[in-house]
């Protein structure tokens, strides 16, 4: 049974930072691409960042480039999202994802 469990969300002021974590189980983590998505109230879910398994390469949505960093620790079956210089428009539920599996999400709220 595959499980993705996110943590690290919360309430932060604009300009602040948060680090999200996602622990995976039930998969050979080191051989899966991992991604973070987010969904703001009233909006569709969107891709934020992805990290490839085979070379660790990363890609980001234009809206977060230069502020967010995705990384992974294969020994801990964990993918991270370091979020700096947060803006109110970053508010939403953040989801960890791989292939067809999704976590339950963690809420990020950025106050102005």
Q: What spatial form do the alpha-carbon principal axes imply?
A: globular
Percent in helix: under 10%
Average pLDDT, rounded to a whole number, is: 97
* Rg calc: 13 Å
Report the strand count.
11
Structural class: mainly beta
Number of helices: 0
List segments where confidence is low: pLDDT < 50 over at least 5 consecutive residues. Answer: none
The major β-sheet equals: 7 strands, mixed
Q: How large a portion of the residues is in β-strands, by DSSP E?
A: over 45%
Order of helices and strands: EEEEEEEEEEE
Measure the end-to-end span.
40 Å
Report on this model:
- The chain contains no helices and 11 strands.
- The chain has strands at 3-7, 10-13, 18-25, 34-39, 46-51, 58-60, 68-73, 78-83, 92-98, 101-102, 106-111.
- The strands form 2 sheets. Strands 2, 4, 5, 6, 9, 10 and 11 form a 7-stranded mixed beta sheet that branches. Strands 1-3-8-7 form a 4-stranded antiparallel beta sheet, with no helix packed on it.
- A hairpin with a 6-residue loop joins strand 5 and strand 6.
